[in-house]
Structures are given as structure tokens and as C-alpha cells.
Design brief:
Length: 256
């Protein structure tokens, strides 16, 4: 029985290595894993899940379709690399250099991007949903807003607030983002913060002559000024349901 299990394991490993070799240059792959130096390498479709590539030099490398999910690429040099359709889900990309890289269609969901550089990078179709530390210059305020709404709907209100913060930093007059951040703060029982955001949203909506927005912000303010009832439960209200009109107004600001 043990010999059969061993034979099966060897067979599966052989198939796996064979598949990787067909997709990527096997010599380049060994070089990368041994030295972390692989400039202009052909790593097309390489399987590098959970690989420790911190500080690796991959400038100019072809990583098209490679799987780098949850890999450690802290401080990696990826300047000019081809990362189109590359899987980077959950990868640590802190301080990585993507200047001039092609990230078209890349999966960067739930990545860590603190101090990562993306100057002149091509980002068409890249998915940054759930990423932490997204640089302001690589997403529009509307995209940050949309990510915030998505996180809020999932109950991730702290992450939602982080995205709304970035939307507001990039577009200080973004009334919808203030209103949405206020709702998220309300979810976290930060009534004072929610009230402040609702007031700012009301002023901006009024200045922008958005009657629906102004009315909705006023309804929110009234809700926040209503004292808690003694029999109120401690359960969190739904992101959109605590007052009927909030949801439709927030959705007006989603990019389509």
C-alpha cells in the first residue's frame, strides 16, 4: 500500500512539474527560486503560489498568466514586467516596483500594496477589490467609492471606510462618499462621526444642487439626532436598510 501511495505521489509530482515546464522556462524558474534574480525571464504560466520572492529582481520578466497568489513579493523589482492576467490574489506587494509594468487583467484582489510604485504601469482591467494601501493615482475616486460600497454590503465596514477615505482624499467634494462613510460609521456605532459626515454631505449636496441627495442627508441627520430607545437591540442595522432612501442615493455615485 505504501509503495502504491509513493508511486502515485511521484506520478502526480511529475505531471505537475511537466505542466509547469510546458508553461514556463524550467531553467528560468529554477534560477528564480534559487537566486531571486531573473531579469527578462520567461515565466509564462508559472506556478508560484506562496513563493518567497521578497526582494526578487524580475524586471522585464514575462509572467503572463502566472499564479503568484499569496506570494511574498515585498520590495520586488517588477519594472517593465509583463503581468497580464497574472494571479496575485492575497500577495504581499509592499514596496514592490511596478513602474512601466503591464498589469492588464491581473488579479490583485486582497493584495497588500503599501508604498508600491505603479508609475506608467498599464492597469486596464486589473482587479484591486479588497486590496489594502491602493495608491490614489491608480484608481479613480468613483472606483474607490464602488469598492467601499461593495465592502459595506459584505459587512466589512472598516474596510469600506478606508475606501471612502481614499475617494474623499482624491475628490474632496465627493458628497456621496461622505454620506456613504457616514452610513458605514453608523454601522460601527460611531454616531458622532456619522453625524459629521452627514452634515458635510448635506452642505455639498446643497451646493451641487442635488435635491435628492440633500433630502437623504437630512433624513440621515434626523435619524442620528434621534436618541436610542431603551429597548433597542445592539444588533447592527443593515448597510442600506435603516432608512429607505439611503441605498438608492448611494448607488447613484457608482461608476457605470
Amino acid at each position: 500500500m505504501k509503495s502504491q501511495i509513493l508511486a502515485t505521489a511521484i506520478f502526480v509530482t511529475t505531471i505537475s512539474l511537466s505542466t509547469t515546464a510546458q508553461a514556463a522556462n524550467s531553467e528560468h524558474l529554477r534560477q528564480l527560486l534559487a537566486t531571486k534574480q531573473c531579469q527578462n525571464c520567461d515565466l509564462t504560466g508559472a506556478g508560484l503560489v506562496l513563493a518567497d520572492l521578497s526582494g526578487a529582481n524580475l524586471s522585464g520578466a514575462n509572467l503572463t498568466g502566472a499564479n503568484l497568489s499569496r506570494a511574498n513579493l515585498t520590495g520586488a523589482d517588477l519594472r517593465g514586467a509583463n503581468l497580464s492576467s497574472t494571479g496575485l490574489f492575497g500577495a504581499n506587494l509592499t514596496e514592490a516596483n511596478f513602474n512601466g509594468a503591464n498589469l492588464a487583467g491581473a488579479d490583485l484582489r486582497n493584495t497588500y500594496l503599501g508604498n508600491a510604485e505603479f508609475t506608467s504601469a498599464y492597469l486596464q482591467g486589473a482587479n484591486f477589490q479588497g486590496a489594502i494601501g491602493i495608491p490614489l493615482q491608480i484608481a479613480t475616486p468613483e472606483e474607490f467609492y464602488a469598492w467601499g460600497i461593495a465592502e459595506g454590503q459584505k459587512g466589512n465596514h472598516q474596510q469600506a471606510i478606508s475606501y471612502f477615505n481614499q475617494a474623499i482624499a482624491a475628490k474632496p467634494e465627493y458628497a456621496g462618499a461622505y454620506l456613504a462613510r457616514g452610513v458605514a460609521r453608523y454601522q460601527l456605532f460611531d454616531r458622532q462621526g456619522a453625524f459629521e459626515d452627514a452634515q458635510i454631505a448635506e452642505k455639498l449636496f446643497t451646493t451641487q444642487q442635488n435635491g435628492t441627495g440633500t433630502q437623504t442627508a437630512q433624513v440621515f441627520i434626523k435619524e442620528l439626532q434621534t436618541p436610542y430607545k431603551e429597548n433597542v437591540t445592539t444588533s447592527k442595522p443593515s448597510f442600506f436598510d435603516f432608512v429607505g432612501s439611503i441605498g438608492s442615493v448611494l448607488l447613484q455615485f457608482l461608476p457605470f
